[in-house]
Amino acid sequence: MSEAVIHEGHHDHHDHKPTGIGRWLFSTNHKDIGTMYLVFALIMFFIGGAMAMIIRLELMQPGLQFVQPGFFNSMTTVHALVMIFGAVMPAGVGLANWLIPMMIGAPDMALPRMNNMSFWILPFAFTLLLGTLFMEGGAPAGGWTMYPPLVLQTGDAFPFLIFAVHFLGISSIMGAINIIATVFNMRAPGMTFMKLPLFVWTWIITAFLLIAAMPVLAGAVTMLLTDKFFGTSFFGAAGGGDPVLFQHVFWFFGHPEVYILILPSFGIVSQIIPTFARKPLFGYESMVYATAAIAFLSFFVWAHHMFTVGMPLAGELFFMYATMSIAVPTGVKIFNWVATMWKGSMTFETPMLFSLAFVILFSIGGFSGLMLGITPADFQYHDTYFVVAHFHYVLVTGAVFALMAGVYFWLPKWTGHMYDETLGKWHFWLSVISVNVLFFPQHFLGLAGMPRRIPDYAVQFSDWNMVSSIGGFVFGLSQLLFVYIVIKCIKGGAKASDQVWEGAHGLEWTLPSPPPFHSFTTPPKVTDATAHS
Amino acid sequence: MFFKKLRDCLMGATTLVLLIWTGMASANEWGLNMTRGVTPISQEVYDLHMLILWIVTIIGVGVFGVMFWSIIHHRKSKGAEPAKFHHNTTAEITWTIIPILILIGMAVPATKTLIKMEQTGDAEITLKVTGYQWKWKYDYLDEDLSFFSTLDQASNEARQLKSGVDPKSVEHYLLNVDQPIVLPVNKKIRILTTANDVIHAWWVPDLGWKRDAIPGFINDNWAIIEKEGTYRGQCAELCGKDHAFMPIVLKAVPEEEYYAWVEEMKVAQAEAAAGGDREWTTEELMARGEELYKANCAACHMAAGQGLPGTFPALDGSAIVKGPAEGHIDIVLHGKNLMPAFGEQLTDADIAAVITYERNSWGNKTGDLVQPSDVKAAR
Amino acid sequence: MEQKQQVTRTPELAAKNRRLAIILALAALGFYFGFLLLQLK
Fold first, then answer.
1. Which of these, A83, A158, A336, B146, has the minimum number of CB atoms within 10 Å of its CB?
2. Residue spans per domain, chain B
3. Which CATH class name applies to A1-190+517-533?
4. Domain tally for chain C?
5. String of b and e for A190-218 (b: at least 16 CB within 10 Å)?
6. pLDDT in the model for residue A530
7. CA distance A150 to chain B (A)
8. Which of A13, A215, A234 faces C31 most closely, judged by CB atoms?
9. Is residue B308 very low, low, confident or very high in pLDDT (cuts 50, 70, 90)?
10. Active site includes A166?
11. Is the distance from CB of B193 to CB of B129 less than 8 angstroms?
């Protein structure tokens, strides 16, 4: 244990942890709460993944071999809700909880009791949602986008869906409030905004997006609830309403939501690449401004999710131009990561492998996204597997790969043990190859005319569906290796030093591995060496 | 040394681009790419698609090429020493301006095509398309001709869960209907889309566009089909459990053939309506009823009338089916909750047949015959 | 219950955190009701 670096936490009397189930149920500790979010997210990832396996199993061949069409639609609906709200978002919040206080030199989050509530709402909300699978009428089957009038045909599951969504929103909003209050009010002296690690910046911006967007979703589903039960007609033409109004309100939430899903991943990758290139992040200020620009622009593009709805020409043109413009700041970020690598001295441990795969594969998702933004072309792509390919590239090879990179990167810090690097590399290579076998052919399927959200298809789509399904099964199985690696690392492994990685910079790397239960109870000294890379 | 490296890079990039070009060209033949289609708009859309595809491919090759170079050469194991630079304003400005220019280059042709797609005026024929759960209704507004178009029987039977039928043995599996639409080539056709219940979307890829069909609203589209042929499409907006099973078949024919077909259809419709004026035999009712049941009712009430507990009631053993005929006729005519009002979709004879079938199938043995005149009286 | 961190946590800091949290929560509620009320007009 180095004496030269300013750290604390070797005072045993500060490290008194609560024990038993109360430690977790009543936790107000950002590390424990972060761990709970991450464990929850991993479980949900497998639940959503199991649903994906059912989907790919049915789609492996033409004809219906395994499930009824209605159940298939429930699978696609709940798969998306679980992955978006149960896996990716909680994993991001879990990382935020663990890392933000350590990165800014704070002892904990600003509102620790609200932090506890934010987490425990999630298992409750998902019990509501997943419970509908066992109801007689089945789980919701109108798509995660819940468009009326179709969603109003949902049976007994409907109120559970609406309330689950409300609770998920409340959890996210409280988490976002906590993050903003923490970063604004609890930075160690000397930790100015422009010294913050990019991960913290991307989370500040994500938190503002959450506060603006989640209430809009809550409003939209409240209107669904009143249309179904309280005689309103927001979305019914017969009563003077408009089904398309829902789509506008939903996607006003929905587009910022996809940036909520990806911005933390941009932050993770911005920590990892400089570390393993042993070179500072290229263009720190541009990265901050580009992220802010992306978030700002994200409020003006929502209708690109509904180009075929029958908008006036002026609307279609506006949303096309606005959508295309987001490519500019996004491109800046990609170029800056490459420039960070350029003339660095790179090593390729597992976090770096996942991060590099992120840059390439997220870009592919970005390319298909740009294509989708060209309105007249979108009339052929919309509601086909081309869209499915696009969002899985940005969300799986994008967000999920970055989250996994982050877990590998910070696991040694959290546990005090190095994970098994050989197994990590196996996980990476199996995943990156199988994920492309799974999703790349879906571009072809969409272009060839295969619609989405269908359990059965015309025979000309057989071959690529078979290939995609095989990729899916291999990818799904490979994730079991990830669980094994994580559990193995928690239980033991080579001792991790404080800095863990040769090129790591930042306050969290000045703490011991694992850090004490309460860290930075005395604010640290912020020097340029401990600020962002 | 620099020129040697540059030459290597250019050779590598050219090879890669050629490979991709070959791949993309063959993709068209292998049915992997978007169709060129058969209308002026579909060709423009195809060209736009290929333009952006090429642009992003070249950008990707460039950026990933630089990355791979860096991964190979700027690695610690090769003894690379990390540089210290972390900004370069010229580079940042360049890689902001150039993408903006490229985007403008894409936006101009896209805008032109979009403006063309909005010109729905001066059409010679107007077709109104209404989406139902789970079939399409077509109204030829200039001709007073209308009919429903449903998934064909062979596909419908093969697609049942665990049917055991090999889809490859069914002609145009899931892309065939009982009654296709026929349209003339080289005439401007205005196509209106709407729906009866939930949002659907009407999509024939060869026409070059799809449009949502929204209940209570009408969307306006147009097409000029330049080549005779049969074009197939599907519903493209999740509309419930049989979203995958409501295809579109469009036959484009010379003008005279189109008008001849219209006349034939009108005659056939008159005959079908006239079928309601006579008495039907038991065999006729049961045979026609079974056909109609499979096409219209089995989707929800299932092939053996067993229904879906919690969602769709069973007909086998149902109080309404075994009770007085008036109640049975009433619910089929006027619908209830999720069940559509089939009075709008089927003729008197058809409804009489399907009700007779239900009352005398599976475990239901009422012995009742319902005649078209009974249905007509109940409307 | 773990030891309270007296060193950095002061009542002033807690008040600052509380105030910011309330402002942000009001913003969120504003978005919620704003969108609802917009549709009722």
1. B146
2. 2-78+88-117, 125-273, 278-378
3. mainly alpha
4. 1
5. ebeeebbbbbbbbbbbbbbbbbbbbbbbb
6. 66
7. 5
8. A215
9. confident
10. no
11. yes
With a threshold of 0.95, does the pTM exceed it?
no
User: Any idea what DSSP says for residue B318?
Assistant: -
Q: Which CATH class is domain B2-78+88-117?
A: mainly alpha
Q: Which helix (H) or strand (E) holds A100?
A: helix A89-104
Q: How far is A371 from chain B (nearest CA, A)?
A: 6
* Residues with pLDDT less than 70, chain A: 1-16, 529-533
Active site residue A14: no
* DSSP reduced 3-state for B363: coil
The answer to whether the CB atoms of A143 and B238 lie below 8 A apart is: yes
With b meaning 16 or more CB within 10 Å and e meaning fewer, what string describes A267-283?
Answer: bbbbbbbbbbbbbbbbb
**Amino acid letter, residue A305:** H
Owner of token pair 């930042």: A506
Closest CA to A60 of A48, A70, A72: A72
State both tokens at A383: 């509601």
Residues B12-26 have a mean pLDDT of 66
What rounded mean pLDDT belongs to chain B? Answer: 91
Q: Are A255 and A301 in contact (CB under 8 A)?
A: yes
A2 CB-near residues (< 8 Å, 6+ apart): A498
Quickly count helices (H) and strands (E) in chain A: 17, 0
Q: Work out whether the CA dihedral A214, A216, A220, A226 comes out positive or negative.
A: positive
Instruction: Find residues 4-33 of chain A whose CB sits inside 8 Å of chain B.
Output: none
In a domain? residue C30: yes
| Whether A518 and C8 lie within 8 Å, measured CB to CB | no
* Complex ipTM value: 0.94
* pLDDT tens per residue across span B130-175: 999 999 999 999 998 999 999 999 999 999 999 999 999 999 999 9
Query: Between chain A and chain B, how many beta carbons pairs sit less than 8 Å apart?
Result: 292
Whether residue C19 is contained in a domain is answered as: yes
Is A330 noted as a catalytic residue in this protein? Answer: yes
Give the residue ranges of DSSP H helices in B231-366: 255-274, 282-292, 298-301, 319-322, 325-334, 348-359
Judged by DSSP in three states, B86 sits in: coil
Distance of CA A384 to the CA centre of its chain: 23
- Render pLDDT for A500-520 as a digit per residue (tens, 0 to 9): 999 999 999 999 999 999 999
Catalytic residue check, A508: no
Best of A379, A390, A436 to disrupt the B interface (most B CBs within 10 Å) is A379
Alpha carbons within 13 angstroms on the beta-carbon side of residue A365 total 25
Tell me the pLDDT tens digit for each residue of B58-103.
999 999 999 999 999 999 998 989 998 889 999 999 999 999 999 9
The CA–CA distances, whole Å, from A367 to A62, A373, A393, B57, B64 equal 30, 10, 10, 8, 13
**Residue A273 identity:** I
**CATH homologous superfamily of B278-378:** Cytochrome c-like domain (1.10.760.10)
